[in-house]
Design brief:
The chain is mainly beta. Helices cover 9% and strands 37% of the residues. It contains 5 helices and 19 strands. The strands form 5 sheets. Strands 3, 12, 13, 15 and 16 form a 5-stranded mixed β-sheet that branches. A 5-stranded antiparallel β-sheet has the order 4-14-11-17-7. It is globular. 30% of the residues are buried. About 2% of the residues have low confidence.
Length: 241
């Protein structure tokens, strides 16, 4: 099924740092409870029952770091689902460069990522776990999400009428680094993974799937107008040329 095209408002999104509290309406942000400088078992554990000693006190076990939700029992096809782990090797995205006209107040050469497609997995969470990228690396990834319109006035197709199209005016974006994983809540609208910088990021992706296309993944295409502002420090050397 070809993605539906939605009209888009003209908006610019300024990303926020990815934190558990800020991202909570859309899913779960996952990061270590310890600073990267910790090399030995800590003398004092974080004051939470979700972190316990493990492996003869050579590790900390963080319980239920991120939920895995499986709602396929309510999918119309009733086709049996299974847990899947895929790998996505994601390359840096091209950024649009806009010369300063003297009216925007920006410095010369502002850069943007234009959001042209959103997708959701209506019956499953989806977790992206970056591999091999230290937090101090300047390569980042953008987590772009939108809530769902609960009562659209003119739902454009049956599946959107049932579960709601994305609320583009409340779209949000977050900067994540290689030391953070992210879980999109079941049914959360999000952009395909957006890597920004000079390096590729490989992600291990964990979710449920049953092989029925419209139940595993639903997509909408957006007309021009929705863009995410990319700060120069994250743009990468190629984008600065």
């Amino acid at each position: 099924m070809a993605p539906l095209t939605l009209s888009s408002p003209s908006i610019e999104i300024h990303p926020l740092p990815l934190t558990q509290s800020a991202f909570a309406p859309f899913g779960t942000a996952v990061s270590s409870p310890l600073p990267s400088s910790t090399r030995t078992f800590p003398a004092h554990l974080p004051n939470t029952p979700d972190i316990i000693p493990a492996n003869q006190k050579t590790a900390l076990k963080c319980l239920n770091a991120s939920p895995m939700v499986n709602n396929y029992a309510s999918a119309p096809s009733k086709v049996k689902e299974e847990a899947v782990m895929n790998m996505f090797c994601c390359f840096p995205r091209s950024l649009r460069r806009q010369k300063n006209t003297g009216m925007t107040g920006r410095g010369d050469g502002a850069r943007f990522f234009d959001v042209r497609i959103l997708e959701r997995h209506p019956y499953t969470t989806q977790t992206f776990i970056p591999l091999g990228v230290p937090p101090e690396n300047q390569t980042r990834y953008l987590v772009i999400v939108a809530p769902t319109l609960s009562s659209p006035s003119n739902p454009p197709m049956a599946l959107l009428k049932e579960m709601g199209p994305p609320d583009l005016r409340n779209l949000q974006a977050f900067w994540a680094h290689g030391g953070q994983a992210v879980t999109y809540g079941a049914g959360t609208w999000h952009a395909p993974m957006v890597v920004v910088g000079d390096a590729r990021i490989d992600f291990l992706v964990v979710q449920w799937a049953n092989g029925v296309q419209e139940e595993d993944c639903q997509e909408v295409e957006l007309e021009e107008g929705v863009s995410v502002v990319v700060e120069e420090e994250y743009a990468g050397e190629k984008a600065k040329l």
